[in-house]
Amino acid sequence: MLWVDKYRPKNLDKVLVHEEIAENLKKLVTEQDCPHLLFYGPPGSGKKTLIMALLREMFGPSAEKVRVENKGWKVDAGTRTIEIELTTLSSTHHVELNPSDAGFQDRYIVQEIIKEMARNRPIDTKGKRGFKVLVLNEVDKLSKEAQHSLRRTMEKYSSSCRLILCCNSSSKVTEAVRSRCLNVRVNAPNNDEIVKVLEFIGKKENLQLPPGFSARVAVKSNRSLRRAILLFEACRVQQYPFTNTQAIPPMDWEEYVTEIASDIMKEQSPKRLFQVRGKFYELLVNCIPPEIVLKRLLSELLKKLDAELKHEVCHWAAYYEHRMRLGQKAIFHLEAFVAKFMSIYKGFLIATFG
Amino acid sequence: MGKRRSTVVIVSSDDDNDNDDVFTIGRNCSSSNSKPTLRNSKSVLNSKSRTAYARPTAKKARLSHPLSTSAELLSNFDEYKFLSGDLADDFAGFQVSTDSRRLDGVESWVYKYRPRSLEEIAVHKKKVEEVRMWFEEKLSIPKQGSQNYVLLITGQAGTGKSATVRVVASKFGAEVCEWNAPTPTIWAEYVHNLNAGVTYISKLDEFENFVERVRKYGMLSSSLSGSRQPMVLLVEDLPVASGRIAQGRLLNCLQLLVKSVQVPTVILITDYSAGDSADAGMRHWEELSSSLESAGACKMAFNPITVNSIKKVLSRICKQEKCNTSSEQVNLIANASGGDIRHAITTLQYACLRQEKKVLVSSEKCTSNLEAKVHDHGQKDAGSSLAYGRDQTLSLFHGLGKFLHNKRDTECTISHSDDGFYLKEGFTRLPLKMDAPEKVLCQAYGQARPVAEFLHENVLDFLSQDAIEDAWSVVSYLSDADCLLSSVHRTVTRNYEIENVIQSAAASVAVRGVLFGNAHPSPSRWHSIRRPELWQAEKSTRSNMHEMERQRLDHFYTLGLANISAICTDYRPALKWLGYRASLPLEHADVNNSLIRDNSLENDELVDTYPQNQAGDDFTDDDIEEW
């Protein structure tokens, strides 16, 4: 088992980061009335961990007995029947799913499937709660229509069903949904907190940690706890005992983005742009989300850039990130950003060095 | 002979069909209101009557509609509205009553003047001779088992394929028995039939049954009728088969026919112009004809009819009809027909009608129209080009070549001061050496999405190597086009009208953006137009994504329902590092290995397929230049 899973806190008392949130959640549950919840925060900040711990708090250990199902659903949509297949993770008390996996059919998922689940009230054995919990991941990727129907489902079935929504950015969740939920912001853990966790794991695994080592991993992890732990384990596999000079294995795709960034800095021409496109394809084929590629590329470029250009470059990155959401083919917009950057940078070079 | 005949029909070829078959103007009309006709395919071949098969009453009912109602019916279709209205107008001037089954005054000249003798056929003498030889051979030589009886004729629409066959057959006194595709069943009709308890028979099934019957009982009808006339089977409309399976069935069925039929059989396949070749259906017909040829069918390809022979035919008709069409106009029609004689004759008939009623379309305009065809700016009078000529089509690659090469005049001839606004220096471009981009797109049947993708793939090659600024403006226009295109999917209810507008707007933005942005085109040299790599990339992405979802299911404890992006950005790279650890539990090692393997496989595939694509889609510069 990976350390990420092995040392995932099982209940709310044991969490090492976000202790305050955990405490509040615990209070919330013990008061017997749980509102709909919306967890949001950057990847690797511990949203899912908190949700799992919360479920355990609510329903006891039985919430951990989950099974995976790949269910097919038939939804009657007016004149035709739509068949959707979706993976769910469910226990007797909760069901977890990624409605956005259904792509453009997501609103059927939300409308019908959730409705159906919410209608099936769990059998009310003594002392147990009379509601079921639905955990929906990646709510921010749902289409507007789906979010609208989500809002209606929430109201209609609020007596029998609680929703726990989980997403990266709450700004992509409609106001209506947000206002019906208790919003829980889960910050990215800062480096000290990550160090604390890594040292905790190190102690459990009986590892000798040279001073400052875990801090280096933490810096490298980009404030993502998941990545920090994965990197930590990778280091352990590569070389043990740890030394302070030990290289921390990089993420391969990040290396690749760095390479793209230096390509761009070296030459600005349509030909180079074409080569860069090829590399983008490589990243996209490996399912790296284009937004993340753009973000990473921007930060790599900013590292090497003159301060007076930074503002403009950031502006265009944001502009094309937005475009990417509006459009369908991410490569068009990624490339447009690179072209814009090249033209800005080339102009700058000519202006300064003649 | 109406194309809409519902069943297999036995027709005596010497009979004058003019009497029983009426051709209403605008075959569009008849096709658009195709009524359910009774279908009775079983009793046909052995029906004793040698006259035309008694028409189902439904057809009669249809024909008795006054023309105006069918024009009204048509008016649902915007595209035809203008044309049909005009036609109805013109013909109304002639006071035609379409109430009777006979259209005494206006009979389609295409049928009136269809060739009666070998000399009258406009097809090249040699081709006619070839067909004649074939018939002679098949009809005169007594039957031997191994002989092959199938003739495959291909050619564009209106090159006289069926006319030739009919005339030649009648020369030998042979009886033409033909298969015409049954009327397509429309959905509403299907539903109606279903409720009425009539089971639907697929058109392909019907065709298969027919072929089966012909193979087994080939000459039955001929022997029953008692005449000693030889018989020729003419398969004119092959059923439309879409999808691999159906196409395979059709192919098998035809191959069987080729191998075992004992009657001289002629199969006609209409080629479509190169402009249509973008869609896969075309390749299917090509495949079909080549495989039939390999099965032993004798193949003949008919070329478009030459302008001269079309002219000859047209002037002959003019003489017989005693209408004074100027030779200029005949020239024009012949030139514009693109080798389609049927179209040319219909146009002539129409032109003659117009003359008598309306002012003659000024011939100067027409001639200038022809000359200006290569080099105009889309401001040409649309009316005159509508009157004659088929619309020119371009292949998609031709159109793309035009856009990418971005040929412009060397100096600005149109002064901008006329239209009252001034452009800054940076925004002015020299006039384009082509039609309006939208028109080119339209001729090339360019759809917004693929056009944008092709442009995106290829445009960088055509930019000057210093012009990164241009590259940005081109790519940013493409990005605009993409946003426009995807806004289609954002609407809750589909509105096709809006979608059409958006589609054409997006195509226009993409094309004009490329033309405008490429302000410093690189000097023209050899370029190949590649297929968008984006397609391959997207395909691989999807399959990888799918694979990952599957694996997430297998190893759910580790990966849970973690989203794909987390798996890709965090878990996979880390697992790759962890793969070095021997003590890793087996399942993780599995995940790991398979992930890596997939990955490398995918890359190999990309590399492998790529040169292929290039080879397949290479276009020499000459080609593009020539266009």
Counted beta strands of chain A: 7
DSSP helical segment count of chain B = 27
β-sheet strand percentage of chain A: 5-15%
What is the subunit organization of this protein?
heterodimer
| CATH architectural category of the largest domain in chain A | 3-Layer(aba) Sandwich
Number of domains of chain A: 3
The greatest inter-chain interface is formed by: A-B, 66 and 66 residues
Distance between the termini of chain A: 58 Å
Give a short account of the largest sheet of chain A: 7 strands, mixed
- The CATH architecture category of the largest domain in chain B equals 3-Layer(aba) Sandwich
| N→C terminal distance of chain B | 38 Å
Q: What's the number of helices of chain A?
A: 14
Order of helices and strands of chain A: HHEHEEEHEHEHEHHHHHHHH
What does this structure look like?
The complex is a heterodimer of chains A (354) and B (627). In chain A, helix 4 (106-119) links the parallel strand 4 and strand 5 (132-137). Chain A folds into three domains: 3-185, 3-Layer(aba) Sandwich (Rossmann fold); 191-238; 252-353, Zinc Finger, Delta Prime, domain 3 (Up-down Bundle), CATH 1.20.272. Helices cover 53% and strands 13% of the residues of chain A. Chain A has 354 residues and is of the alpha/beta class. With 627 residues, chain B is mainly alpha-helical. Helices cover 54% and strands 5% of the residues of chain B. Chain B contains 27 helices and six strands. In chain B, strand 4, helix 11 and strand 5 (265-270) form a beta-alpha-beta unit. Mean pLDDT of chain B is 66; it is low at 1-103, 221-225, 274-278, 358-387 and 580-627. At the A-B interface, helix 9, helix 11, helix 13 and helix 14 of A face helix 20, helix 21, helix 23, helix 24 and helix 25 of B. Chain A: Belongs to the activator 1 small subunits family. Chain A: Keywords: DNA replication, Nucleus.
Task: Set down the secondary structure blueprint.
The complex is a heterodimer of chains A (354) and B (627).
Chain A: H1 3-6, H2 19-30, E1 37-40, H3 47-59, E2 67-77, E3 80-90, E4 94-97, H4 106-119, E5 132-137, H5 144-156, E6 161-167, H6 175-179, E7 182-185, H7 191-204, H8 213-220, H9 225-238, H10 252-266, H11 270-285, H12 290-303, H13 307-326, H14 330-353
Chain B: E1 9-11, H1 27-32, H2 57-63, H3 67-74, H4 78-93, H5 109-112, H6 125-140, E2 150-155, H7 161-171, E3 175-179, H8 187-196, H9 203-217, H10 220-225, E4 231-235, H11 244-260, E5 265-270, H12 280-294, E6 298-302, H13 307-321, H14 327-336, H15 341-357, H16 363-372, H17 382-387, H18 396-405, H19 437-443, H20 448-458, H21 468-487, H22 496-517, H23 533-554, H24 556-559, H25 564-578, H26 586-617, H27 621-626
Parallel strand pairs in B: 2-5, 2-6, 3-4, 4-5
Antiparallel strand pairs in B: 1-3
Helix pairs in contact in B: 3-4, 4-15, 6-7, 9-11, 11-12, 13-14, 14-15, 14-16, 18-20, 20-21, 20-22, 21-22, 23-26, 25-26
Family (chain B): Belongs to the rad17/RAD24 family.
Biased composition (Polar residues) (chain B): 32-50
Organism (chain B): Spinacia oleracea (Spinach)
